[in-house]
Give the backbone structure.
Amino acid sequence: MTDAVRSHGLYKRYGAQVAVAGVDLVVPAGSFAGLVGPNGAGKTTTLSMITGLLRPDGGQAAIDGFDVWRDPVAVKARIGVLPEGLRLFERLSGRELLLYNGRLRGIPKADVEQRAGELLAVMDLTEAADKLVVDYSTGMRKKIGLAAALLHNPSVLFLDEPFEGVDPVSSNILTDVLRRFTASGSTVIFSSHVMDLVERLCDWVSVMSGGHIVAQGPLEQVRGGSSLNEAFMRLVGGSRADGEAGLTWLGAKHGDQPQATATPQDTP
Ligand SMILES: Nc1ncnc2c1ncn2[C@@H]1O[C@H](COP(=O)(O)OP(=O)(O)OP(=O)(O)O)[C@@H](O)[C@H]1O
């Protein structure tokens, strides 16, 4: 079967800073996949290039076998994206936002209305459906963003930190919707820093560090008999500075700290 996502040698630099240093990301179709890595590892940059939002300096990426940059229309028809720092049309209501997205995707009006109503109900947004998006909370924004990304029934769904700032109830709702989505054979790939969540949800994991993939495969293989958190620390933690070095002043009693010496200008 064709992989849902396959990139080869994806590369991006900003001036002297290499953000993504040749990434071969593979996600089998039907996976619930997690992309993990420390801050600055290159996750957002990689997802942006794979979803056609950012042009790579080198390498290729394909979705369901379609090249992201040579066949953008086929790719965009197949993907749903919940990007980092999601920007929404703030002066539309949640329902209007979904109807607008559906019409942009070319879905017949009656179908869009039915799908929008069902998505709003599943996301527990029916009551807020006619409220302006500008007045939505962080969790509500994530949920309406996810609803908009699902409306056209994509084959592959990309989510950049979908659970960040989301309360446990909303998080369970998002999880249920995503589980239903992958159970029907579609693919989810999401980035996260929360190892427990990735371990609980994902059957496939890609670990990035320093712009590279440092481990990738089925969850059991990547964690290799330990927890994902331990495996993550083994894979990316070793090269990092000792977190306990320095900071001897932090938490010291105020009376214990040396007094600043008065300079001649301080004295009248
Ligand atoms: N527009 C930009 N201009 C300059 N440097 C950038 C830009 N975007 C990303 N970078 C750099 O590229 C590297 C990778 O950033 P990226 O946002 O992809 O990491 P990330 O893994 O998503 O991090 P986080 O987990 O903190 O969201 C970082 O060193 C970052 O500073």
Notes: The chain has a mean pLDDT of 90.
